[in-house]
Amino acid sequence: MRDADAMALGRLDAHAQAALVRAGELSPAELVAAAIVRAERLDPALGALSHRAFDAACERAAALRPGADAALAGVPWLAKDSLDHPGMPTRAGSRSGAEILATAAPAFVQRLSAQGLVAIGKSAMPEFGLLPSTEPLLGPVTRNPWSPAHSPGGSSGGAAAAVAAGIVPLAHGSDGAGSIRMPAACCGVVGLKPGRGGVVRARAPHLLEDLLVGDGLLARSVRDAAWAFAVVRPVPSAPVAAPSPRRLRIGVVAGNLQGDDPHPEVARALSAAAALCADLGHTVEVARLPVDVEAVAEALRTLWSQLAADSVDRVTARLGARAADRVLEPWTRQLAAWHRRHCGTDALERAFAQLGGLPAAFAGFHRDCDVLLTPVVRTPPPPLGTLAPDRDFDALLATVFDWMSYTPLQNLAGTPAIALPLATSADGLPIGVQFAADRGGEDLLLALAYELEAAAPWHGRWPPHAAASHAEAG
């Protein structure tokens, strides 16, 4: 596989790559070989991959035979470092992670593998997904392909960077407070977070994660994102394939959970998205969230820090307290300690009351407003180091909950949302906007995404460090 040919293939989405296999122009093995070339050329500067499984991927691709039961035979993808995939370690971005190779696949992986997707490795993430930037002390630090000095977001930052750069057309992301949508916005790709219970199981049962986390595949095209959701939803279905003629009532909310306005460039992106929706014939009005934002923000802090405390407890039980202190990152340890100081049973009771009440509140909201339009994050992508795990804890705590102060609402309510790359900053960095719907509204969001993709296409926008740029240079 010539480098120039491999880079040219990186410009194609998953469906276009699969079409070449079905036409007999390329084999599944050649698609995978091309992705490996791109990873070897592009990833040293990005740090998007935390584990390489190139030999195993080549073996699997060589054994694939395209057919109706393997619609995307040979299309390469990445599993997130927290997702079990046979033959790969699951470290979740932590130095505490064992090098033991997984032997079983959750239903999520089984569904994708049955369609012919081939994982070439794992994507980098922050420790246990607890930060919205991908700078784990385990390494690698992931850089934004639009600017190596800036964060790709997190926690699915390696996934978003790899897709934005064209290393792979699809990469797994998990979203417990925005971890698909935030990196999608930072890297200029499509990120759908399904609603609660919207996809088959991707991990072992866990009370909080089952309530908060949605899994999906980040993609450059809406058709790829729609296909992925159709494959992994509990009852597989035909994917949404086109816009809907239905005109929607879209409510716009600019303020975050702290009651603060977004950065001026994010505000302009939000206004431009609202104007585009109005031009397309949708009814667009300013809306008011049907929630007590202070109570929701408190619930987020309580439950997010509970996840840190759970993580510390698991590692301590396995390694002992002294070893756990050595290997766990400062942010993880100190967030867990903060939880134990500030979040007693009363705080947990209030947080679970929010989890119980928000679905009904949003069901009422969406009776009058089909879609909620908001920013994804409060600012354009921040410089690396802004959200690093070894920053001063008090400063980092304030920064984290200020920056990821839009997306967690859908995790707490269990509703679906999608981030779309509709804008760029004055410095040329991506700025995404978020559309959210009521429970079960994923197809509605995808139909709207198709319409916006056609009206304001982003396919031709590539970062400086990407397969497309290398193909043009070649």
Give a structural overview.
The chain is of the alpha/beta class. It has one domain: Amidase signature (AS) enzymes. The protein has 18 helices and eleven strands. It has helices at residues 3-9, 14-22, 28-46, 54-63, 107-114, 157-165, 181-187, 207-212, 222-232, 264-279, 293-319, 321-327, 330-342, 345-368, 393-403, 408-413, 442-455, 467-473; strands at residues 49-52, 76-80, 118-123, 170-175, 191-193, 214-219, 249-252, 283-286, 371-375, 417-424, 430-436. Strands 5-10-11-9-7-8 form a six-stranded mixed sheet, with helices on both faces. β10 and β11 (430-436) form a beta hairpin. α3 crosses α6 (157-165). The protein is globular and about 60 Å long. The two termini are 14 Å apart. The mean pLDDT is 97.
State the major sheet: 6 strands, mixed
Instruction: Kindly report the CATH topology.
Output: Amidase signature (AS) enzymes
- Number of distinct beta strands: 11
Average pLDDT over all residues: 97
* Radius of gyration, in angstroms, nearest whole number: 21 Å
CATH superfamily: Amidase signature (AS) domain
Helix content: 40-55%
Order of helices and strands: HHHEHEHEHEHEHEHEHEHHHHEHHEEHH
Uncertain runs: none
Describe the strand arrangement of the main beta sheet, using strand numbers: 5-10-11-9-7-8
CATH architecture: Alpha-Beta Complex
Give the arrangement of secondary structure elements.
Layout: H1 3-9, H2 14-22, H3 28-46, E1 49-52, H4 54-63, E2 76-80, H5 107-114, E3 118-123, H6 157-165, E4 170-175, H7 181-187, E5 191-193, H8 207-212, E6 214-219, H9 222-232, E7 249-252, H10 264-279, E8 283-286, H11 293-319, H12 321-327, H13 330-342, H14 345-368, E9 371-375, H15 393-403, H16 408-413, E10 417-424, E11 430-436, H17 442-455, H18 467-473
Parallel strand pairs: 2-3, 2-4, 7-8, 7-9
Antiparallel strand pairs: 1-3, 4-6, 5-10, 9-11, 10-11
Helix pairs in contact: 1-3, 1-18, 3-4, 3-6, 6-7, 9-17, 11-12, 11-13, 11-14
